Amino acid sequence: IIGGQRAQLGNFPWQAFTNIHGRGGGALLGDRWILTAAHTLYPKEHDSPNNATVDVFLGHTSVEEIMKLGNHPIRRVSIHPDYRQDESNNFEGDIALLELENSVALGPNLLPICLPDNETFYDNGLMGYVSGFGITAERIASNLRFVRLPVARREACENWLRGLKRKDVFSQSMFCAGDPSLKQDSCQGDSGGVFAVRDPNSDRWVATGIVSWGIGCSRGYGFYTKLLNYVDWIKKEMEEE
Amino acid sequence: SIFIPQKLFGEVTSPLYPKPYPNNFERTTVITVPQGYRVKLVFWQFNLEPSEGCFYDYVKISADKKNLGRFCGQLGSPLGNPPGKKEFMSRGNKMLLTFHTDFSNEENGTIMFYRGFLAYYQAVDLDECASQPNSVEEDPQPWCQHLCHNYIGGYFCSCHPGYKLQTDGHSCQAECSSELYTEPSGYISSLEYPKPYPPDLRCNYSIRVERGLTLHLKFLEPFEIDDHQQVHCPYDQLQVYANGKNIGEFCGTQRPPDLDSSSNAVDLLFFTDESGDSRGWKLHYTTEIIKCPQPKALDEFTIIQDLQPQYQFRDYFIATCKQGYQLMEGNKMLLSFTAVCQDDGTWHRAMPRCKIKDCGQPRSLPNGDFKYTTTKGVNTYQASIQYYCHEPYYKMLTRAESSESARGKYTCTAQGIWKNGQEGEKIPRCLPVCGKPVNPVEQTQR
Fold it and tell me: Rounded to the nearest 5°, which phi and psi values hold at A121?
């Protein structure tokens, strides 16, 4: 998290801390599902076999404390079928679900986040919060941090990518947030965490995106998996279990 | 004489009938029917020369050594002595018919021709039982000493109870060593009652009725058995046994009290010595169906269905419990209860009890808990609990149409199950509440 601040206990109680192929994030859904990015489980440009252990921690803002609380064993991993590990510039379907072996007991430091149900959550300029244990000021974070970012116009992001002569796929199943003029951004180690928006109507926090990819960190747009497009898939995966 | 072969019916006619009979003729026809029958004879046609006193031509009928009449003339005519429509009956199985004609049939110088007679006879059953004995009979028939039973063509004898028909088929000798009575009621008496009973008797009267019935004995007047002033029943005794157990020994002239044997098997032994002229005894026995005690519930929760004012052998009753209570037989739970009244007047099962249904400890609710809205820790019928979720992190999931007041409320039902009005037996679920951090981020500096 670049340009953000330290989170307090209970600010982002859905935040998961993962250690799979390196540090990552996730979000608690219900009481036994972790939403994360597929590329944290199946990284692109990864030569070694995909048999890393999946360590998931919940319930604290301190890395040390969250690990002391113990890991949560995983029963099942579900990767979206659109995800292509072998395509470096394509983060389409960058979404995965981890089913916990055991349900977690909810409390002030451990609560799930809701999912979106309409397009207004992606209105241009809507402010959201991204949290994570990723890199901050060129250092690996030892505490959870967060940053507030605006949803950006699609066209602006496309132009920005074109200007950088990038061939990365920016599909309708993604959205962009941040601004090249802003320092604030998500960064490596934040992947899998969610872009959270507060819905004033229901007074609930809704996860509208998953930290997916970007071109470096800070002074640019970040790209997020658009969760509204995957709600049906998520429900289906959960209901099957 | 001509003998007609034994038949049950036949006819007898004058010679040459219907042609005029010859003169100077006499013939006796012996009509015989089988033993046990009598002969009945009637004339259908009768045309003989009439004469004063039937001196010339006549028909003479006789039977049992008696003359039944002498006849001549014509039917319907006052001359002579025609037999008319008279039926001639013998007492035995034979009848003699003699037909006699003189040397001529001339009237005022004119020769008359008379056709003769046509008679029919038939065998009629002899009621031997109605006939009086006659010591001067040729073939004396010994009559029955006790009872006579007539039938067509014969008769047979039988004896009073306590007597046995002898080999002669007529005389009866006292025999009462194994008299058996099985009817639901009846009368039993000493031999010859109310006349003096015979000496040297060893009588055994057994009453055996269906199980489930109990015998009552009632002695009638007169009651007279030889006795002694000082010694109890030394000469003749009447002993009564019920199910093999002696319930009394009686003699004298005092009628014994009514006896309730409490048994379906009674034996009466009657012994008499070589002398005495007491009139004996007679009793009327009846049966009554065995009864069982009136069933009574052991507690206020037991219901006896269709309670009857009285229960007797083979009757039954069904017991159930009030709603919310369980039938128990000892420690065993019953699905139903029936008791049958036995032949000894007892119920085949003891009355059960009803114990309040217990739903047991309520199931724990994951991510929630429950509290008792009735007495804490009591899980019996009509106890009530309220499930709740650990809010604000969890919220109870119920049916859309369930009311707020009923949500999570469970009652111990009559079936012994915790139940909610809408959810039924299924306990509710506590689902996570999303997007409601207890401590949401709030930024101050702008």
Answer: -70, -10
Q: In this complex, do A11 and B441 lie within 8 Å of one another by their Cβ atoms? A: yes
CB proximity B441 to A under 8 Å:
yes
User: pLDDT, tens digit, for every residue of B271-315?
Assistant: 999 888 899 999 999 999 999 999 999 999 999 998 999 999 888
Three-state DSSP state, B234: coil
A177/A115 Cα distance (integer angstroms): 18
Residue B355, phi then psi, degrees to nearest 5: -115, 140
| pLDDT at residue A49, as a whole number | 64
Which residues in chain B have their CB less than 8 angstroms from residue A10's CB? 437-440
**Which whole-number Å values give the CA distances from A118 to A94, A108, A227, in the listed order?**
20, 28, 10
pLDDT in tens, B95-131: 999 999 998 877 778 888 899 999 999 999 988 888 6
- Min CA distance, A161 vs chain B (Å)? 31
Which residue ranges of chain A lie beneath pLDDT 50?
Answer: none
Contacts of B434 in chain A (CB under 8 A): 14, 29-30, 111-115, 204-205
Is B435 touching A (CB cutoff 8 A)? Answer: yes
Supply the residues of A annotated as catalytic: 39, 94, 191
Residue indicated by tokens 């206990």: A9
Calpha distance B285→B280 (Å, rounded): 17
* Largest separation between any pair of C-alpha atoms in chain B: 187
Give the integer Cα–Cα distance in Å for A183 and A84: 30
Q: How far is CA B127 from CA B42, B107, B131, in A?
A: 20, 47, 7
